[in-house]
Design a protein that fits this description.
Distance between the termini: 125 Å
Largest sheet: 8 strands, mixed
Strand content: 25-35%
Number of strands: 23
Number of helices: 7
Order of helices and strands: HEEEEEEEEEEEEEEEEEHHHEEEHEEHEH
Structural class: alpha+beta
Amino acid sequence: MRRSSAVLVSCLFLLTASGISPVHAQDAADLEMAEFQFSSVITADNVYVRSGASESDYPVIKLNKGDIVIAVGRKFDWVKILPPENTYCLVGKAWVEKRGDGSIGRVRDGSNNVNVRIASNLNNMITKVAMQLHSGTDVKILGEQDEYFKIAPPAGTFMWVHQKFVEPVKRVEVINNNGQLEVRPLDPNKPPTQANVSTPTTPDKPASVVTPNNAAPLTLNPPPADSIPSNGSSSPASPTTAPAQTTISSAEKEFDTLETRFNELSKLPLEQQPVDELLVGYEKLVADKQLPESMLRMAEFRLKGLKIRKEALIQYEETKKLRDRLAEQAKPLEAEGSEIAQRLEENRIRQFTAVGTLRPSALPFGGKTLYRLTDPATGRTVVYVNSDDPNVLKLEGLFIGIRGEVTEDSVRRIKFIRPNEVQPIDPSTLLKGTVTSTLTPPSLLPSSASSRQE
């Protein structure tokens, strides 16, 4: 039996010898420390906390040497612990409604046997059901993930660490105080309280756990001599690692490195991802079959996804080549199209209501002064312009074309136009025929131009 296991057995023996009954009659495979719990220290780095008591159960989080956990039971070679800090569970949004500011959720009326699943910070596995909640139970909401709420692990949620990585340090009490688990140092003059750490939360209190990281009495100090069972050594027992475990540890480390790289590279556009490199890494892990079952399943899942990405990348490259080839072929057509468009623009016939040189007028009309379009050759008025638009008036002195409505004043016997659109034009375009106008200066009429040429 490993040394850490021997330590736990020694603890049980000492408690029995002191007249304190450590456990009631239970299945030896699931030894619940109902009357004694321990603040325990992790003895190595990169230790997996798992969702169940086996290598096949997926890892939830990693702990390092010196981290503190609260041990409350044992099953075979696995120590049962309260959920460490930064772990969380998932519950379906359909069964929970938010309350107040949204940080508290309550199981909907009539909803019973609602599954609470253990989430992982290391992979996407969520298959482990930790417990079930019933109508009216409150939970602390930490966030959202797809169709689930992230919640603080409710009282009655446990996780597991292999016993070779755990050393007991101090006796503690775990008290369920209205759904909040409180971890307290054990009073040596007081018999340990019968703790019921698996009691579900009450409807009015969200489940939470006071962990060693936020409970001052549990700060790790050198324990008194009588607080750690003697194992013949003053220092914690070093874990014994068999060759097979070394192989698995190496595979797990390679898996973690590959997962980190996969997550980083997945943020890049598909064409920038080294899909072949990732494929080789996951194919090696799957072929070696040295990973725990849950990690192996994840590696196989990644492998399938990467194969789909590779097919998509091949299609992308083929599409890109085709696009580039078509773009190259289209360049002469685009140039020709631009030339044709320019010619059409040059030869496009533009129609105006009136054309002429814009000049001010001394003729008052409706309390303001009109402008007029004049014949550039004679200065005679073609039509008056009724506008105070600065965009029109700034064109004074220029030959312009105006589109708008022509109105005739029978009293003054004049015609005036209200501009809708005004733009400068070249008078020669009238002679070329690319500009036409309803009201045209006589000197620019085709017949006048012909007479002047004669």
